[in-house]
Design a protein that fits this description.
Length: about 190
């Protein structure tokens, strides 16, 4: 009995050591989300593609090109309300309701500053890693924000795409509580 436990414990420690060496995407929890985030998102998304603006270019391809890749990675990532995002301001019917994504923004950057149009001081990441700060903005007001980081070899790296998708879900939430309780919020 004791030998079996020791072997199981040893295997668990070994597996944990092996898995801790994996460098996969990491997303930090949502530091801020206003109660109206879901409502504002569904309003804007019901009108057409939501605008994505990008600040920073850690891969040297230009912010415009990176914005297109970012918008594609974030499109249809909210399972309970899939919607498109675009980097083309002319295609966004509500351009004042937007997502601002800063790559390698520095530790003092905040979602509120991104929403106010302030460009954070660029900070380099650890070699091979990219840091991301995303904010959902309504007319200059931060509705929600989330931070994350991942190793990435370039803008089309699947790990970066996975991180952006994960951050999109955290940025907007999923509104499952309302869906569980019914259309009237559980009141009869």
């Amino acid at each position: 009995m004791r030998i079996g436990f020791a072997i199981s414990l040893g295997l668990a420690v070994l597996a944990g050591s092996i898995l801790s060496g994996c460098a996969g995407p990491t997303s930090v929890g949502v530091p801020y989300r206003r109660a109206a985030t879901w409502s504002v998102m569904t309003y804007a998304a019901s009108r057409g593609p939501m605008l994505v603006e990008v600040i920073g270019d850690p891969f040297g391809i230009g912010e415009g090109a990176l914005a297109g890749i970012t918008a594609a990675a974030m499109t249809d990532q909210v399972p309970t309300y899939p919607f498109p995002l675009t980097a083309d301001r002319a295609r966004a019917p509500e351009p004042n309701i937007r997502v601002v994504v800063a790559f390698d923004p520095g530790i003092t950057a905040s979602g509120a500053e991104l929403c106010q149009g302030k460009r954070p001081m660029a900070a380099g990441s650890q070699a091979g890693w990219v840091q991301v700060l995303a904010a959902f903005c309504d007319r200059g007001v931060e509705m929600s924000s989330v931070q994350g980081q991942t190793p990435a070899d370039g803008p089309r790296d699947p790990r970066l795409r996975f991180l952006l998708a994960q951050m999109t879900r955290q940025l907007f939430g999923d509104n499952t509580e309302m869906l569980k309780s019914g259309p009237n919020g559980g009141f009869h």
